[in-house]
Amino acid sequence: MDRLPYQVTAAAERYEWIGRLPVAVLLENIRSVYNVGAFFRTADAARVEKLYLCGITAHPPHRGIRKTALGAEDAVPWERCSDPAETIAGLRERGYQIAAIETSLHSVDLFDWIPVFPVCVVFGNEVEGIQPASAARSDVHVRLPMLGVKHSLNVATAGGIVIYELLRKYRFQYPWPSPEGATFPLNSR
């Protein structure tokens, strides 16, 4: 089987207008360097604007990140930040909606959430979740539907789901031409 890069397929034309997805990802105290590497890989795949690596979250150059990211850490803009609250405040001043990806009493379902771009999604520690101060500073809490016996996913898996749902929602905010020339507006598919 011949493998083709997605960018050379006809389906990629629907995404050509997206330079960088107006989504920032803040990783707060992520313990596993492999989870960080997976975020870099997903951020590259969806052309996420920037990763913010806060607290104890590892940052490049790191052999473990490189092992999972496979070079994506060189393609994705990132910034090391010691204080997530400062970073959140700065993003809010620049007009970002701050979304804590966390199950709480006030969480909305990922598929019901109507994001206001640009968006910063905040992911917390694999065991403890998002720090209370960051959760309190968020504009919205978003939960992933969990239908099984477990109440959470691996943070990098959750990140992939959320980032790709944001890509889908961003794409549907604007019409795009079909191969036949017809235009499909928001929510038509």
Supply the key terms:
single chain; 189 residues; alpha/beta; Alpha/beta knot; 7-stranded parallel sheet; two-stranded antiparallel sheet; 5 helices; 9 strands; 28% helix; 21% strand; disordered C terminus
Structure, briefly:
The chain has helices spanning 33-45, 63-69, 84-93, 132-136, 155-171; strands spanning 21-28, 48-54, 78-81, 97-101, 108-109, 119-123, 140-143, 176-177, 183-184.
Could you describe the 3D structure shown?
- With 189 residues, the chain is an alpha/beta fold.
- It has a single domain (19-184), classed as SPOUT methyltransferase, trefoil knot domain (Alpha/beta knot), CATH 3.40.1280.10.
- 28% of the residues lie in helices and 21% in strands.
- It is built from five helices and nine strands.
- It has a seven-stranded parallel sheet with strand order 3-2-1-6-4-7-5. The protein has a two-stranded antiparallel sheet with strand order 8-9.
- The longest helix is centred in the last third of the chain and has 17 residues, at 155-171.
